[in-house]
Predict the 3D structure of the following.
Amino acid sequence: MRLKGKVALVTGGGRGIGRAIVEAFAMEGAIVAINFNQHKEGALAAMESIRSRNGKAIIVQADVSSEESVQGMVDQVVGAYESIDILVNNAGVNSPTPFLKLTASEFKRIMEINVTGLFYVSQAVAKLMIARGKGGSILNVSSLVAQRPFSNMAHYNASKGAVSMLTQSMALELSPYKIRVNEICPASVETDMLRVALQDPKNRNHRLETIPLGRIGQPEDLAGAAIFLCSDEASWVTGASLVTDGGLSVIPPFGRPS
């Protein structure tokens, strides 16, 4: 078990990619804290699934865009398990909108959750890791759009670009404390965020045509990458960005059929 005995906090851990990571971490022996904000049912289901296999898990409610709420969440996890060894920043939102119709309030909302929220959680957990003096691992869930933009998602593209630069900055500044910081960059993964778009046959077929591995990604496809980057197998890996996109990014020009 590659994560045996490690305490892992996963934000947005009740659905999609977060849930897949939570379940996979537990199978690798991690003690998991599953964060949710509004979707308690999914977090409860994940916790019950893990406990049914004799794993250890709790759920913790917090709005990552609130610094006070984040500190309360971290305190709750520490109160239950005394430490946090692994942090996965998975919580995020998207609302595809053409740039010229994008409102200031929607732009701000995306940034507050996807960027500021990641900052709040990362800083709170990093301070805890430093105080313990045993290092740790932080994994950010970014996106392929951090490298190349998708249409109608200027706000989301910008937020994930910020996540990628935060990943590198944190890796640089936290390395003296033996805290590793990496990211995974998925694309076209069938989660609640993308499922509505994938119901359009034209959209789905276009995505399938531009993914060399020939299928839409599933949340579970990212779990192995997350385990590796958070385990001791990646003890000399920090500041890395692992693209998990079925090969989409290798097709010029960026996923468009010839």
User: Anything to note?
Assistant: Residues 104-132 form the longest helix (29 residues). The chain has a mean pLDDT of 94. Strands lie at 7-10, 31-36, 57-61, 86-89, 136-141, 179-186, 241-244.
